[in-house]
UniProtKB/TrEMBL annotation:
<feature type="region of interest" description="Disordered">
    <location>
        <begin position="110"/>
        <end position="145"/>
    </location>
</feature>
<dbReference type="Pfam" id="PF11228">
    <property type="entry name" value="DUF3027"/>
</dbReference>
<feature type="region of interest" description="Disordered">
    <location>
        <begin position="290"/>
        <end position="312"/>
    </location>
</feature>
<protein>
    <submittedName>
        <fullName>DUF3027 domain-containing protein</fullName>
    </submittedName>
</protein>
<dbReference type="InterPro" id="IPR021391">
    <property type="entry name" value="DUF3027"/>
</dbReference>
């Protein structure tokens, strides 16, 4: 609705209510009580002018669960008529009414971690995070040298790049084969991450395991120099890797190369435990060990006491 239309409507709406319509409170109350349950129509609250000879009477709603709601009964009168007639009766929220939260579509309500086993999460056909993996737009024409060369290589490697739709191919290709290169480029998948999808993923990961986190700020060294960092491929591999330190805070997570934690492999190498000295065997002397107490003093008799040990 344009501002001009609003203004013209406002101008047409009379400021003072039609006297007969404003006085038809009894008619309005009867209509409200007919629509509502018995005893839930409360005090008359106010009269709202809707137009020429059209007013709405508002009554309190006393029904539990409808705090602040009001019964709105609109009455009208024809020009030069003396009889006021009922227009409509409806329950409307007042300014301090208790209202349900605004409805949000499920796709906007979904939060990370909401998916459970067996759940299916449909992806929008126009999802900005994805783009076609293979459009065929830059495919070389059939008579070009490039396409012949490509066909020969495919035949030689017995690759599966031409069998059916790319999305139907599920077998993992051998490393280094043409099919694996096609896989890397996204040719075997119907859709791949778009630039937008890459950026949003990178932002998300940086937020959780990036250089600005408290853990990284207090870390002795960044992940890039940590032995527990597993490199990842693709363009994201230039900025991220996977942590494989089971005692670290990011085990199994994608971490920024600038992230870090106290579990860094080189930060604090444990000192080796001291090695005990090897035992010394002295075979040149006899150690006297007590076996039983001496009969008179209660002390123990030494081994070999009173025996000839054969020493001259
Ligand atoms: S152990 Fe710590 S420093 Fe090493 S990769 Fe994992 S998070 Fe990074």
């Amino acid at each position: 609705m344009s501002a001009a239309t609003t203004r013209s409507r406002t101008q047409r709406t009379p400021r003072t209510p039609d006297r007969l319509c404003a006085e038809a409170i009894g008619l309005a109350r009867a209509a409200a009580e007919e629509a509502a349950a018995p005893g839930v129509v409360g005090e008359h609250v106010e009269v709202v002018v809707e137009g020429d000879r059209v007013v709405t009477h508002l009554f309190e709603c006393k029904e539990l669960g409808y705090r602040g709601w009001r019964w709105a009964v609109t009455v009208a009168r024809a020009s030069r008529a003396k009889v006021v007639t009922l227009d409509e009766t409806v329950l409307l929220p007042g300014p301090d009414a208790l209202l349900a939260p605004e409805w949000v579509p499920w796709s906007e309500r979904l939060r990370p971690g909401d998916m459970g086993p067996g759940d299916l999460l449909p992806t929008d056909a126009e999802d900005l995070r994805l783009e076609p993996g293979y459009s065929g737009e830059d495919e070389p024409p059939p008579n070009s040298v490039l396409s012949e060369d490509m066909a020969e290589r495919v035949e030689a490697e017995d690759a599966e790049v031409t069998a059916g739709s790319p999305a139907d191919l599920t077998v993992t290709p051998a490393r280094g084969s043409l099919a694996s290169i096609a896989d890397e480029l996204g040719l075997r998948r119907a859709r791949v991450l778009s630039r937008y999808g890459l950026h949003t993923a990178a932002d998300r990961w940086e937020e959780s395991y990036g250089p600005k986190t408290a853990m990284a700020q207090a870390a002795p060294a960044p992940c890039v120099s940590c032995g527990f960092l597993v490199p990842i491929g693709g363009s994201l591999g230039q900025a991220f890797g996977v942590c494989a330190n089971e005692f670290g805070p990011a085990d199994g997570r994608v971490v920024s190369l600038s992230y870090g934690c106290g579990g860094h492999s080189e930060a604090a190498v444990m000192p080796k435990p001291p090695r005990p000295a090897p035992p010394v065997l002295d075979e040149t002397r006899v150690d006297v060990l007590p076996l039983r107490p001496a009969p008179d003093s209660g002390s123990v008799l030494p081994v070999g006491a009173g025996e000839d040990l054969g020493h001259s």
